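Hi R.,

Here are the chain sequences for the assembly we discussed:
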Amino acid sequence: MRGRDILFAVLLGLGIWQALVIITDAPHFILPSPWRVAQAMVKSWEVILQNAWVTGLEVVLGLILGTLLGAATAIQLALSKTAERLMLPILVFTQAVPVFALAPLLTLWFGYGIGSKIIMAVLIIYFPVTSAFHDGLTRTGQGYRDLAQSMGAGKYQFMRHIQIPNALPSLGTGLRLAAVYAPIGAVIGEWVGASKGLGYLMLLANGRAKIDLMFAALIVLACLTVLLHLAVGKLADRLAKVAQGR
Amino acid sequence: MIQAPAITLSGTHTIGDRALFTADMTLPARQWTALLGPSGVGKSTVLRLILGLETGGAFEGDIAASDGASLDGRISYMAQSDLLLPWLSVLENAVIGARLRGDTPDMDRARALLDRVGLASDADKKPGALSGGMRQRAALVRTLMEDRPIVFLDEPFSALDAATRADMQELAADVLADRTVLLVTHDPAEAARLAHQIIVLSGQGVTTWDTPAAAIPRDIQDPETIACQMRLFTHVRAAAA
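And here is the predicted structure of the full complex:
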């Protein structure tokens, strides 16, 4: 049933796209037809794959690093009231700076390689992960707190045995958001300055008026993001089930 | 086990500038005291005060143990909600106290206690797979694993069906013998069955009730127990009106 729905949606999308091409009568270097894009994809599959691999690597590494950093920050904030008081306003304030505006700076500092893109992805997902997980950690029920206090629990043991497992579903929520944001960060980093990656390929193709190749890269990027979203969604479900003891 | 002390509490508890209750009560050593009273009168607050938990108010007065030592770390606590951690097995839940203190848990003792309450074959199950009564038995084992001389029970059986509740009362009376127990309850029948002493808390203060001479858990059909329950019921009802 779901497989059929997806197939139907894809066909519908292709149909609308083809209809737009026919109705607007746009030249192929403005709006290429699905068929042209498919041909470009087949013709340049090696280039697309190489660049998709780079972008995929940036996104996955950014996701892992950003999640680790965000989770560690959330735990630290939940452990220390002082850290919470000092850090939370700073964290919120940094969110007022559009991360995209930092991209040129990051490229300047960390170069044209994948490093600056990974950092871009880390920066963009750090806050959603921190915020969601911290929320879960601090929302441990009063009953658990009372019980732990009556048992003479240490604060680190309470964190490890009760707060963290209890907050796993919230971490899952943060991860779902991160999976949507991380590719945006990586691609923006590539636009600002790179020699590899799907974002770079799109700019390159655009400059050479190979709009069909640009569309092909865009579609592959969308597929990557959807795959990532599905995989992270599965992980988030798993985290929620662990917390429920299923 | 260390000798269980008596506990005395006397003083006034206020929330904001409203006095919640003024109380002067003694929980006799190695006996069960049942604490009754209408909802919102502060029964659970008494328990939380002695436990040293946050009450959202201020208490002026004295709380002391008869042996003069601090009550810190000598009371274990069981609430109405079983508070089992859903992600841990029954066995791991039973030893959570040791884990939370960073100690090595005594697994053999936990298994023996689970066996005693009839949960031996459920040790590796998650709480979600258990019935309400089984979950409360697991919580009771967790309370016993703490091995404290004083045990506070905050309406631990109130969510159970009548038959399971009667079973749990008998089990608790058996395994908690020789400890100083404070049972917060709103059920006169439970108080009449289990308590050596009954305290009724109201805005005016405390009334202490005598209980039948029979050993606990008393037979539900024992005429003296029924009479005690009826007198208590009438008193509680009049106090609420």
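The first helix of chain A runs from residue 2 to 24. Chain A touches chain B through 23 residues (CB under 8 Å).

Let me know if anything looks off.

Best,
T.
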